[in-house]
Design goal:
Chain lengths: ~150, ~150
DNA sequence: TGTAAGTAGTACGATAACGTATTATATAAT
DNA sequence: ATTATATAATACGTTATCGTACTACTTACA
């Protein structure tokens, strides 16, 4: 490996991250029913892992997407009965997003469908290496998060 | 950190990769002229870093995107005069994609615009950590690549 | 209070991504 | 040679994503 400037190193890293993200996205989406996207699943996952009852705007910020994109994702999820949008008693302008029982079941089934894929990868790749890289990605994520423009 | 199964480790890793990819995508796209996407820049970058003169299908495979998506990206790049599509003398069905001088200049300018961002990150994050994680991502990428369905 | 400024959500329009079907050419089988 | 099969690219339609503009409501302040 020839000498590389730090800038090149980061650039190469982000390039590789982009490719891995794309490949893993395809892997995950293959396990979702028909036309569902990873974005939609990720929202459901967030509502369970983190918290539901927050506003659409909170979710948009959590995922770093425009609020119009989140409106659309939530509309799709609501149309399928996977989330419920309720008025926000504390603020007449906004709503609260709740996951439904169907939503929980959907997420559970999707997660279960992905386990074999993860296991297949784990069978060929040392989880210790991944575990070692995780905090690097996590720290970098937080740095990028702090650097972003506030919206 | 509680005990985690290898499956969970990989799942968490892919989640983090997805977030970092999204944040860095936003960072890069902010440095591209008006309506250009990272996909388009990445194609230009590939034509220079790897090789031009290959077919659209070759590029689609390299980026793991459907060939129809690549057709669209190339059409946009061609419309802006950044690539040139020529008939393939060896196969009447296909074409060859060449980057133009304008395309090289465009890529060069975009790269230059991104260097300060990379430097700003490098100032707050040890490049050694990134360099250490790079081969892990790279190996994982190749594994995912081998696991994908051939199309 | 009442007015100005700010914020949450969405309607609308544009482009990107992608799946399906079609056309043109190439390759294989007979 | 002729026919069947496979492949490269693209036309077309659908959905995701996102920017702009608008409405409804809230907060700040005078």
């Amino acid at each position: 490996m020839p000498d590389r400037t730090p800038e090149d190193t980061f650039f190469a890293f982000f390039t590789e991250v982009g490719i891995v993200a794309q490949l893993s996205r395809a892997l995950f989406e293959a396990r979702l029913p028909d036309g569902f996207t990873l974005s939609q699943f990720t929202v459901l996952n967030h509502l369970i892992r983190v918290k539901d009852g927050r506003t659409p705007l909170d979710l948009a910020r959590a995922f770093q997407v425009p609020k119009t994109s989140m409106t659309h994702s939530l509309a799709v999820l609501e149309r399928h009965g996977l989330v419920r949008l309720a008025p926000n008693a504390r603020d007449g302008r906004s709503k609260c997003v709740w996951i439904t029982e169907d939503g929980r079941a959907f997420r559970q089934a999707a997660m279960a469908g992905m386990v074999p894929d993860m296991a297949a990868i784990a069978a060929q790749f040392a989880a210790e290496r991944i575990a070692g890289a995780l905090p690097i990605l996590s720290d970098l994520r937080h740095l990028l998060d702090r650097m972003r423009d506030p919206d």
